[in-house]
UniProtKB/TrEMBL annotation:
Record has Oxidoreductase as a keyword: yes
Keyword Membrane: no
Family label: Belongs to the iron/ascorbate-dependent oxidoreductase family.
Record key words, sorted: Iron, Metal-binding, Oxidoreductase
Every Fe2OG dioxygenase domain range: 160-263
InterPro entries named among the record's database cross-references: DUF2086, Oxoglu/Fe-dep_dioxygenase_dom
Superkingdom of source: Eukaryota
Protein name per UniProt: Fe2OG dioxygenase domain-containing protein
Short name of any one Pfam family annotated for the protein: Oxygenase-NA
Gene Ontology terms, MF aspect: metal ion binding; oxidoreductase activity
Amino acid sequence: MMVPQSCLMWDGKEGWESVYRSVPDLVVATCTAALAAEIAPPSLKALYTRFPDNAADLLRDGALLVQLLNPAEVSTVLHQLSTQKTDKKAPRRLDHSQGNGYAGEYADLTKPLPDLLQRCQDAARKWLIDHAGPLCEVKRKETRGGTDVTVTMSGKDALDKSKALLLRYGLGGINFAHRDSCGDFQALLLLSQPGVDYTGGEFYLADANPPFETQPFPFAAAGELLLFRGRQGHGAVEWKHGMQEVKAGSAKVTRRVAVGFFQ
């Protein structure tokens, strides 16, 4: 079945001045219900088989790209996201004045996640637990009874209690190198088509210590899942991660949209 290219485009508000509260304002929702209904979403077991047999490349290089969804399945995710709400907080912007980047924003997705997106997250979680070795303990700040406290949890619990983010970048978008307060590993599912919706925008890992070497991991297609080390984890390298500048693709509107797991 041919998937309309519009399913990978944007049909939302332009500019960054509006305070977006729901996914339809952030992600294109041009796929019809009929189109989505024609696609039998893959099972958790089927998604798991799309991962490699071991995590050697991930542990050696710090990141691993997996073609997790095909174009029709990406369209299903976009359709399901069109009715998904973000949390009540306004999306956080990336702005040079805050020292975190340019022309981007992100928002927490409410639970439960859309069905196919949840299966993607569950498959990635299971694969990491099965293949990535012992996960380090995580210290995380939580609000309990109106008070911020620091909680220590196992690496497995950190995956279980993590959240998913919707991330959007426009023309000129940049995410400066940083480290999130997450567990050993994070993941990023691309929903835009490189070359069409945008060019540039390469994800990279950066050594936090001299000589500050960086390693790019460019996406090749929508539906790719990038697994990467969120912090030191295994080995002695202390990783930071970021994204290079988003440039125009062949589409009229430049947009790079992704969902982040294990935040």
